[in-house]
Amino acid sequence: MHLSLPKLPPFPAHHPLLNQSLAVLREYLPSPAPVLGAIDQRIPMPVKQLAAEAPLNRLFAEAMAEGEFDDFEGRRIRLELNGGQPGITLGFWSGRLRVVNGPGEATIRGSLSAFRTLAERRQDPDQLFFQRRLVIEGDTELGLALKNLLDGLEWDVSFQSILFPAA
Known about the structure:
Residues 57-151 form the SCP2 domain. Pathway: Cofactor biosynthesis; ubiquinone biosynthesis. By secondary structure, the protein is of the alpha+beta class. The chain has a single domain, classed as Nonspecific Lipid-transfer Protein, Chain A (2-Layer Sandwich). The chain has 8 helices and 5 strands, in the order H-H-H-H-E-E-E-E-H-H-E-H-H. It has helices at 16-28, 33-42, 45-59, 61-65, 112-120, 125-130, 140-152, 159-163, and strands spanning 76-81, 87-93, 96-100, 106-110, 134-138. Strands 3-2-1-4-5 form a 5-stranded mixed sheet. A hairpin with a 2-residue loop joins strand 2 and strand 3 (96-100). The protein is globular, with a radius of gyration of 18 Å.
């Protein structure tokens, strides 16, 4: 006996019900940081490198080819959620972004929602820092240089584009 579910019509990416449901989930679900931190500590570095390096290098390929990242050669910046875990340290060597172990010369710290807002470009990055939703520690000049670079580049990492990539 074979059971099959009925075919449902495609759900449009900009459906009002989807947007409202996501807003409610963002507002009331607890922070995933403790769970992500526990998972992060158990993932071997080669797996993190495999998962993060290729997408980041594709995302910023044009800017790297134009030399926009050259000032970051040999430098390390850590991005981490409030509380220290999870986090990722990125370095730039030989024209490529790399995931590395250890601390960064600068650390940019904030909530998951602040990083998502930054990545989706829903708010001016300066506002995120002035409101202390994102904080730079360590070499602040390096952290500000990265913030300014990202602010000046054309890139798109939206929640919608991840869930519903263009065909």
